[in-house]
Amino acid sequence: MMSPGKKAHHTAKWARTMTKWLVTYSRRTGAKWNLVDFGGKAKAEARGIVDLIAIRKDHRHDGPALKRGDLFDIVLIQTKGGSAPRPTAEDVARLSRDAKYHRAKAVVLAEWRRAEKLELFKLNGTRWQSVSPDEIFG
Known about the structure:
6 strands; globular
């Protein structure tokens, strides 16, 4: 049997792994999403509110000063595994400020529990709204 700390580390790692898989395989059209993982030493969680960033080139827009592919679509992702609690109101405020600062397309909470399907929730104001991967990464 695993200690509570090892179990938390294990489920957090699996939550990030399953989220990466889902983002990679949910794209049907358009530019490929690239993922940046902010895991710390020994693949443990690092400091900060964001666990993963999904980023891709935006080929839809161009203008007088920018050309297609110069801009990016950015999605900030926080992962939760096992019985980890959802982000607090303070965490939600931090995620919102971070998204505004980076002009992110969305803030996503990815929840994974063993033997269950990974669930995605998009931050809508101060509430989490269940979404399909296609709505965010399609």
